[in-house]
Amino acid sequence: ANHYLAVFDKATGSALELFRAKRIATPAQRIMLIAREGGCTKPGCTVGAYGCQVHHVVTDWADGGNTNVNELGLACGPD
């Protein structure tokens, strides 16, 4: 059996920390990333947040990374 943990915002009920429960960021997580980063985090890139995708920046999902805001970042498409 697999056990999963998620942390929800008490006021809105939105999932903020998904750990290994899901690979894809929630809309609430994306909003937090847009507010925090404003756009692509690649050095020298000026693409705005709405032109970016959410990526696992600390540890890739396939390598055991978590879908938590502090482990996600915004980046534009592949070079």
Explain what the structure shows.
The protein is an alpha+beta fold. It has one domain. Helix content is 14%, strand content 16%. The strands form 2 sheets. Strands 1-2 form a two-stranded antiparallel sheet. The protein has a two-stranded antiparallel sheet with strand order 3-4. A hairpin with a 6-residue loop joins β1 and β2. The longest helix has 11 residues, at 27-37. The chain is flat. The model has no long low-confidence stretch (mean pLDDT 83).
Provide a concise account of the structure shown.
The protein is built from one helix and four strands, in the order ββαββ.
Keyword list:
two-stranded antiparallel ribbon; flat; 79 residues
The biggest sheet amounts to: 2 strands, antiparallel
Task: Please work out how many helical segments DSSP would assign.
Answer: 1
Q: What structural category arises from helix and sheet content?
A: alpha+beta
* Mean of all residue-level pLDDT scores: 83
Strand content: 15-25%
Question: Looking across the biggest beta sheet, what order are the strands in?
Answer: 1-2
Q: Return Rg in Å.
A: 13 Å
Order of helices and strands: EEHEE
Any low-confidence stretches, pLDDT <50, length ≥5?
none
Bulk shape: flat
Number of strands: 4
How many individual domains? 1
Distance between the termini: 39 Å
Fraction of residues in helix: 10-25%
